[in-house]
Design brief:
Layout lengths: L11 H8 L3 H35 L18 H17 L2 H28 L7 H27 L6 H18 L16 H14 L4 H69 L1
Length: about 280
């Protein structure tokens, strides 16, 4: 319908229809796009409100956010807070800044999940030896170092010579885990296959893609991460620990009560059986 050099970046389909004389179609396309974006935003906001509710139940966030409305059965407090915060951020922030922040946080979390998977498989507590943990740390350092170096190298230059050093280092770290470090937690039913190669590739690719983002996005990400870490260390961690201890205490008390109930039931049954036997003997 239109040459790629003439495509409008802001409304590609709508303008394309107008260029070929179908001006009426651009309104249908625009309405469909608006409907689709609205649906996605609503689904995202509702889903995030549920996440917020579960986090608040552990007291990492104020418990007020975990309250569920009795009539509707929905977390209204969390939904209102999430929608309000999202609207304010979207109103005062450019789309490019939000897109870059979303990209950097997503790539960072994917890398972190892949790293956590490797730690979980190879460093199970009480099973992995100190020597194996040291070898694992050295291999992880090779994987992370080569990935970060590749991202920085790609952002700084267009040459390819550096990759001939960094890619073999990444491969050395991955093969090192596979050969030198025994897996301490094997799968029982289903899990991520091709470990450690698939998680290591995830780390390398995601960290490499981080190199395509601008410095301002890293500063913003670091600023908000620092704020959240301070909140977690000084507020959320203690509140969630206290909540966990309270739940543990309640669970132990309920188990103790159920045991006592069982112990009381047995003597009562024995007494009733004895009484019935005495009654029958007297009748005879």
């Amino acid at each position: 319908m239109q040459r790629f050099s003439e495509v409008d970046e802001n409304a590609a389909f709508s303008v394309a229809f107008e260029k070929v004389g179908m001006s009426w179609a651009k309104y249908i396309v625009a309405f469909g796009a608006l409907k689709g974006m609205t649906s996605v935003l609503l689904v995202g906001a509702v889903g995030q409100a549920r996440y917020l509710t579960h986090i608040a139940r552990t007291h990492l966030l104020p418990p007020w956010l975990a309250k569920v409305n009795e009539r509707t059965g929905t977390p209204i407090n969390a939904t209102v807070v999430m929608l309000g915060a999202t609207a304010i951020v979207a109103f005062f922030t450019s789309l490019e800044v939000l897109a870059n922040l979303l990209s950097i946080s997503t790539l960072f979390l994917f890398s972190l999940v892949a790293l956590a998977l490797l730690v979980r498989r190879y460093c199970a507590r009480g099973v992995a030896t100190k020597a194996n943990i040291v070898k694992f740390i050295v291999c992880i350092a090779l994987i992370l170092g080569s990935s970060v170096a590749s991202a920085v190298y790609w952002a700084k230059t267009t040459k390819w010579v550096g990759y001939t050093i960094m890619v073999p280092l990444w491969l050395l770290g991955t093969v090192g885990i596979w050969v030198l470090v025994p897996m301490t937690k094997k799968l029982k039913v289903w899990g991520v296959p091709l470990v450690p190669f698939l998680p290591s590739a995830s780390i390398g690719i995601n960290v490499f893609l981080l190199g395509s983002l601008d410095k301002a996005s890293f500063r913003r990400f670091g600023f908000w991460t620092a704020i959240l870490l301070v909140y977690y260390l000084f507020v959320g961690l203690h509140a969630s620990y206290d909540m966990a201890q309270t739940l543990k205490k309640e669970r132990l008390e309920s188990m103790t009560e159920s045991k006592l109930d069982e112990e009381n039931v047995v003597p009562s049954l024995t007494e009733s059986a004895t009484k019935s036997e005495d009654h029958n003997s007297l009748n005879n």
